[in-house]
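step 3/5: co-fold with glycyl-adenosine-5'-phosphate
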Amino acid sequence: MADAKTTDRMEKTVSLCKRRGFIFQSSEIYGGINGFWDYGPLGAELKRNVKDLWWRTMVHDREDVVGLEATIIMHPQIWKASGHVDTFADLMRECPVCKKRYRADQVEPRSGRVYKCLGAAGTDAKGPSRIEFPFETIVPKGKPPIESGKERAKKFYSALKLSAAEPFGETISEEVSNSVDFCSDPTCGGKLSAARPFNLMFKTYVGPVADEENVAYLRPETAQAIFAQFKNVLETSRQKVPFGIAQVGKAFRNEVTPRNFTFRSREFEQMELEFFIRPDEAIEAIYGSVAKPGIGHPGEPQPNWGWEMWHKYWVEERVRFYESIGLPRTTLEEYWQKPEELAHYARATVDILFKFPFGTQELEGIAARSDFDLSQHERFSGNSMGVFDDELRAAWAKLDEGRKKELADRYSQARYKYLTKSGVALEPAAKEAKEDAEGLAKGQYIPHVIEPSAGVDRLILALICNAYAEDQAPDEKGSMESRVVLRFHPRIAPIKVAIFPLLKNRPELVSKAKQVRDLLRPLMTVFYDDGGAIGRRYRRQDEAGTPFGVTVDFDTLGEKGPELQDTVTLRERDSMKQERVKISELTRVLQEKLR
Ligand code: GAP
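step 4/5: write C-alpha cells
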C-alpha cells in the first residue's frame, strides 16, 4: 500500500511532468481519454534519447543483432498463431448499477478477502498466458483462510471452463459466477456481473467492409513481427544463429484498468529483442556439453552456451543497461518466476522490477521461450522456420550411437511436448517429433529464443521517478531556497546544456552567448535562455533535468582582465559547482561529461 509520503511524491512527479512539458493527458481539451498519454517537448526528447541508447546498445554496438521496423497491423493469423486471439485476456466484471468495469483479479469481495493475480512478482498478469496465472487469496489478519489460493484458482478456472479452444467474450452464468465468489462494487455496492474473459487486443477492419472477414488487430506486442520476418531477415542479413532481431515500436492493449499514470497505458511503446539460439542438443552434439551459468555476468558470449547461459547473459546485460542510464541496481529487483507461474512454453522468465513510488513493479521481462514462437508460425503459415547448421551436421556424424540416441530422444521429447500442448493429437505429434529429431541429425532445427522485452513508457516513468529530488540551493543573494531538480543521467537528459547571457540588455553578452549556443548546437541539445534573474533560470533548468549550464558574463568579454576573456562559467546541476572553462575547450569538456 502506498503511504501518504509516496502518494505525495507521485503527485508531485505527475504535476511536474505536466508543468514542465514532459507528459500531458491525451486529448486533454476534450476531457482526456483514459490510458493514453502524450509526450511534450521535454518528454519527447527524453523518450528519443532512451530509445536511441537502447538501439545503440542492442544493435549498433553488437555484431550479432540487426534491426526491424514492421507494421502495426499485420495478418490476423499472426495473432492466432501467437495465441493472442485465444488467450490474451483479462477476466472482467461489470457493475450493473454504475457500469464500472473491474479486472476480476483486482476485485475486493465483501467477504473481506482480497485476491490478486500473480503475474510478475504478484503484480501484473501478462502475456498470452495472462489468464493462466494462479490466484492467491490474501486473508486479512485475524481471519481464518477460507480456501487456499490454489483451490480457489482451480475452482475459478474450472467454473469458467477456460481453455484455448473456447471462444472469447463468452459469459459464464450468474449461477456459476456466484458459486465462485460474491463480489460487489467497492464504490456503489452494486452486485458485480459474472466474470468474462475480455480480449485485450484492439480490433479494426482492413478495407471498406466492416465484417469478420476483414478483422485485423493493432499489435499488442512488437515481438510477433520479428518471428514472422525471421526467415527474411536471416536470408538478407548474413547473420547465422546465434543472432538477434531488435524492434522498437508502438503496441496497443485495451487494458481494463489503465492506472498509475503512464505505467499501464492502452497505447505504449516496446523495445524488444528476439535472440535466436541453437537448441541445447545441438550445442551438446558440437561441443560435448553446454556451459552452466554461475553467479553474476557470464562475460563474452561463447559458442558452447545453451539457453541458460544466454538467458543469464541477457538478464545481466539488461541490468547493466539500466545502470548505464542512471537507474542504480539498488532501485531494481530481479524476480525469477516460479515454475508454476511460467507459461507452458517458457523455460525461465525473469522480470526486472523498479521500485516505483506506488510499488515495486515490472519494467522488463526476459523470457527463455524455447522454440515455441517460430514453431507456431511454421504450423500456422505452412512455411518452414527451420535453419540448416552445417557445423551440427558434421559434428553429429562423429557422435557414437549411444550419444546420438540420447540427444535425439531428448530433442524428440521436447518437440512432442510442444506439439501436444499446442493441440496436435498424440499420434501425429509422436510422428512429427520423431521426424524433427531425424532433422536434427541432419543439421536442421527451429531456433530457440531468448526475449528481453522492455516498455519504453514504463522506463521513462521510472527514470523520472528516480530523478525527482527536492533540495536546497542558493538564490542570487546567496540565501538558501528549496528547489526541485530532476537528476537525470546526462546521457538521457532532454537538454544537455543551457546557455545564459548574464543580462539580456547587453548586446555584447547576447551576441557572445549566441556564438556559444551555435558552437554547441550541432553536437548536443542546447537551450538558450535570457529571461529573468540568473538564479530563476538555473531553477528552471534544474526542473527540466539539464545537467549543465553555461553563463556568459562580463569576464567572458574580458572586462575584468585578459586572463578570463573568452571563458565561461560551467555550472553542474547536481553539485551546483561552477568552474571557468575556455570557450575553445567547452565542446571537449562537455562531450567528456556527457559520455
Ligand atoms: N513480447 C513479450 C511481451 O510483450 P509483456 O510482459 O506483456 O511481454 C513487455 O510486455 C513489456 O512491455 C512490459 O515489461 C512493460 O514494460 C511493457 N508493457 C506491457 N503492457 C504495458 C502497458 N499496458 N502499458 C505500458 N507498458 C506496458
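step 5/5: annotate
Residues 89-199 form one domain.
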